[in-house]
Amino acid sequence: MARMMYRDAIRNTIFQEMQRDERVVVLGEDVAGGMGTAGGPEAIGGIWSTSTGFYEAFGPDRVIDTPISESAIMGAAGGLALAGKRPVAEIMFADFIGVCMDQLWNQIAKFRYMFGGKSICPAVIRMPVGAGYNAAAQHSQMISQFVTNMPGIKVAMPATPADACGLLRQAIRDDDPVVFLEHKFLYGMKGEVPDDPDFTIPFGHARLARAGQDVTIVATGMMVGYAETAADDLAQDGIGCDVIDLRTTSPLDEEAILDSVEVTGRAVIVDEAPPRCSLATDISSLIAQKAFASLRAPVEMVTPPHTPVPFARELESAYLPSPAKIAAAVRKSLEYR
Amino acid sequence: MQLNREALTRAYRQMKLIREFEERLHEEIQTGEIAGFTHLYSGQEAVAVGVCEHLTERDKIVSTHRGHGHCLAKGCDLGGMMKEIWGSQEGLCNGKGGSMHIADIDKGMLGANGIVGAGAPIAVGAAISSKIDGPDADGKLAVSIAFSGDGACNQGTTFEAMNLAVVTKAPAIFVFENNHYSEHTGVDYAVGTNKDIASRAEAFGMKVWRADGTDFFAVHDTFREVLEYVRVPGNGPAAVEFDTERFFGHFEGDPQRYRGDGELDRLRAERDCLKIFRASVTGAKLLEDVDLDAIDTESLKAIEDAVAASRAAARPQPENVLENVYISY
User: Fold this and answer.
1) Which residues contact A221 (CB under 8 A, 6 or more apart)?
2) What is the pTM of this model?
3) Which chain B positions have a beta carbon within 8 Å of A62's beta carbon?
């Protein structure tokens, strides 16, 4: 085990996979960075520092620094995948998904199905998501709800450095397209990461981050840490919470959610996306359909309000879920008759 | 014109098969037996065949919603295509794709496409892959072709793809088939400035060619030059614009009110690439009418067989709807 930051877990994993498999290539805006400037390649090394040193190690054929053109990046990732490569594309901010939605939604997601299963499309699309940096409404969004709604795309949302490594390695080796949602606010998070160069985490298997008998909390990405903090605080008052980190939203580990709710009878769903037609409503619906008899209180959702992400510090704090809001939702659930 | 008898025969057979494939679809669609949207390629056969005759299975193509000609020219199985258009479980895509999404990865056919302008970035990805693989023993790169129409030349994806191809020096070839109509709107209106698509590609820093797309020999000879250029490592992409004609509507069922009086009759009489080909090869005494007539008969028979097989082919079952979403879940 080595202790490292979430961003380094991502960088190391891609680097190791590029060494292991020459079909793995990275592409995106500034993934080398500095191309065509006096500073030269690697002057930047990726704005998230997740590809620093790649250009020097693998050269321009496998570290493809692209112009600012998300549709071309996304489409080229699809073409590379159809032609036998294993592209790892970076969309610098997940918010830019709007620019390249067609190439993701109508192309990459559908090749395998439309072609009758006669092709694979092993493309990984990394998209940094989420709020917390006062970057306002066009650089802070959670887009899990869009991509989870796309049949054909697998969606991973790592909450820890170890999961960032294991899920990303799985994504790169997977024959299906994977949208990999890295939370920007987690890049600096430190944690233990297994040294095993074949450490992978299979998709569709949730992680039990905390165990408790009283309430089930379901979360993803940055929200997992908030839920754990809330669970730790509630434990001081003798309240036990199951905190389920979904890890992947497609495929979804329904069993982990339903098994927990059958024991606790109470569920709090934490989601960073706006609440309408979201992961939160989807999981609430799942519980209502398949665990109704176990419920002892209405399902609670902790989400932002249905607004764009605001800019000012006070507003962004008010917007985002927090450990305190999650704890309050747990108490509300417990107070229900 | 440097083709031998065998090559000329093969080219005519391919063009004729595409023509008959589509003429038959045009009839069958009116009976209601074929579901969904179908966009016919008739009139443009010289482009698909003149381009694809030069390609090997290592070379990739990405097609459009008007893709039957490109698929057949690239070697997709005729029977499998017909069954796919019939929606059969035995179709090339198990009835999941239909006319607009036929693909055959093993043949280097990376998909027709239901979205105008969507294919170009995918072709560039495949071209980058080819560049990574490097040249063959003869020092030549495999290439990747993006077929686009005059409609797609106005899509931002096409612009992004051209620029990315230039930046990465990818061996991509943008083949623009200007059939003068983007859906129901004329090229004189929809393509701004000087109405010239090739000059747009030129503006991205590419070498470009232009040729008459109704003349197989013009397409074939021009494309040979394009290909020789792009196969050289380091040269990067190129573009070519072919002026061509479409004999049917944008989609089957399109009443074509935008056509001028007598326009279609005039096109069929004067701008039919098959007639032009026949006149050219018989005039030069390279092939006789009797040879070409024999190919006509043979082609009709092949289409007849494919239609009969499609009618008899297995239909998908409801449980098939769940297959092929993911590899392993």
Assistant:
1) A129, A130, A142, A144, A157, A158, A159, A181, A183, A186, A272
2) 0.96
3) 132
